[in-house]
Amino acid sequence: MSFPDLTADLAARMPELRGRLLANQPLAPLTWFRVGGPAQVLYTPADEDDLGYFLARLPEEIPVTVVGLGSNLIVRDGGVAGVVVRLARGFSDIEVEEGHRLRVGAAVPDVKLARAAADAGIAGLAFYRGIPGGIGGALRMNAGAHHGETKDRLIEARAVDRQGRLHVLSNADFGFSYRHSGVAADLIFTRALFQGEPGETADILAEMDRITAAREASQPIREKTGGSTFKNPPGQKAWQLVDAAGCRGLARGGAQVSQMHCNFLINTGGATAADIEELGEEVRRRVKSGSGITLEWEIKRIGVPAPGATP
Predict the structure, then answer these.
(1) 118, 204 in Cβ contact below 8 A?
(2) How far apart are alpha carbons 189 and 48 in whole angstroms?
(3) Of the candidates 122, 113, 176, 170, which has an alpha carbon nearest to the alpha carbon of residue 149?
(4) What amino acid positions are annotated as catalytic residues?
(5) Chief localization class (predicted)?
(6) pLDDT in tens, 227-283
């Protein structure tokens, strides 16, 4: 499937644009599941100013979708209409600041934040070693693992809105809750400032090694997966509910519930996005039928189904 090419018109509207515009760019290679259709336009901004310039001149009727490292994402097989924004090199800086703080770009992988903190002798951020994805996604969903959450360490973040205006948001502005922030959906995060505490590099690295070992022992991290599929309901563990519903190993097409950790869906090879999403919905139906509990997706799903597929 392909969309009408908008890039020439957009480039004409934005003669000073420095970022890159690509028409009908495949998104599957940018996701951990390795599935999904193309972006009508994939825009990679040069930096924060370029992003603001682009958004201020983008026609209002063209939708904007932001993707990060693609670790917690299903792109549907029909692709994503409008503009998909993906931050890259211009948002990958890491700066150590006084007071055991780190200022990082939104495209920085979580693991790189953890490593930079360790190298600087900054404790309190090692939990990011256990989170797949990037800082922008961590801000959007209050990512957390191993007894740490983004809300515990964030001081402030910068973001650009749909009209190209810059905002500086405090921790309180986020309205953080479990795997959620209340920030307006149109804001695109560009940088964030995190607070750590004094620590010894060797101790921090040892903690990161423990986190790595725990993940490798309990999660299918070497598979094509999207991480945790469903949020934990209050007082419950999603994986236990999935297991109790008899869904461990359940398959649809090339998609399967992981045998190792049944809150993970995996692409065993040749899966479509529809296979993965339909499998997730079947798991939700079985859990609801058996326990009365409705599981909420943690994985973000974007785009449209392929022509003829079930929405």
Answers:
(1) yes
(2) 9
(3) 176
(4) 179, 228, 298
(5) cytoplasm
(6) 899 999 999 999 999 999 999 999 999 999 999 999 999 999 999 999 999 999 999
Task: Give the span between the Cα atoms of 267 and 249, in whole angstroms.
Answer: 12
pTM: 0.93
Going from the N-terminus, what domains does the chain have, and what CATH number goes with each?
Answer: 7-86 (3.30.43.10), 92-204 (3.30.465.10), 220-302 (3.90.78.10)
Instruction: Specify which residues 156 forms β-bridges with.
Output: 170, 193
DSSP state of 230: B
18 CB contacts (<8 Å, ≥6 apart)?
A: 45, 46, 47, 50
Q: Which residues lie below 8 Å from residue 111, measured CB to CB, with a gap of 6+?
A: 128, 129, 131
Q: How far is CA 310 from CA 75, 175, 185, 253, in A?
A: 15, 35, 26, 14
